[in-house]
Amino acid sequence: MERFKKTNLWHITYKVRNDVRFRYYFSVNDSFDDDWEKRFENLAYDRFNKNITIFKDDKGKEDKLRSYAVMLNAEEHIWVKERNNVPKGKLEEHKFKSENLENPRRIRIYTPHEYSQKNKPYGFLVLTDGDEYINVLSAVQVLDNLIADKKIPPIIVIFIDSTETRVEELKCSNAFTDIIVIELIPWVRDKYNISNKADEAIIGGLSLGGLTATYLGLKHSEIFGKVLSQSGSYWYKPEGFECDDSNCWMSNQFKAIGKLPLKFYLNVGVLETKDRMIDTNINLRDVLISKGYTVAFEEFKSGHDYLCWGETLANGLISLIGMK
């Protein structure tokens, strides 16, 4: 940034699209070169901007603040806004214990308004990064609004918190996917009235969670018949796998097998990195379509930054289970 002479004011100008949302922050007295770990520790939000995304720690206290801008022609977000006049679902908290998890994991279960154990079993959605979906992306408000407007049928949603082991768990870990399929789903089924039909079960997530959602669909289409991936991290590849411009590791997995009983919603932001995010998501989309899968694909007008994932969660659910 440049300083106005004899003032404490600094300025910089960027030219951006007039229809996007984007996050930004300051790194004061930055001398870190390519050391992004130190740079992230130094980030500060814009105290003069009222548009702030609040991240909380595991005790509910404000942990990080991130400033963002909404350009003049950006689309209005409607699904994430709480409405006082719609019936509200219920959120219940549990501690899920597993011999394969170091500590009990917080699980929260959303049940729709007038949920009943006597009704026909409900379709369900499983989301990793549960706390972010609830507290940053307003997922509960999204669900209440969609159900009230009859855009989707009443569903049950299982929010799984992520911890410091998130990266290890969400890089296509068979140990973690086994916990979900072998332990968590039966545990929820014992307590809640959820369907045992794969075509009524959605696995979803954002970033690495989108990658893992796709991996769970690949490995366990007998449990999950629908995949909802938001900015899936398809740049991921196991050690030893060579990627080029025409493929990514996840695409290769689907190329190598016959068509599974799966339906997909994929999205990626127009401001995300081209090679790691946009190109790999497009590559996976094209491979899936070539194999005969039904794929809804959305390029939303933001980046890898939490500003649109709440709203596009609604778009994904309408695409996968929308009521006609």
UniProtKB/TrEMBL annotation:
InterPro entries cross-referenced by the UniProt entry: AB_hydrolase_fold (IPR029058), Esterase-like (IPR000801), Mycobacterial_A85_antigen (IPR050583)
Q: Which residues form a coiled coil?
A: none
Output the superkingdom of the source species.
Bacteria
Q: Which SUPFAM superfamilies match?
A: alpha/beta-Hydrolases
Q: What is this protein called?
A: Enterochelin esterase
Q: Which Pfam families match?
A: Esterase
User: Source organism lineage?
Assistant: Bacteria, Bacillati, Bacillota, Clostridia, Eubacteriales
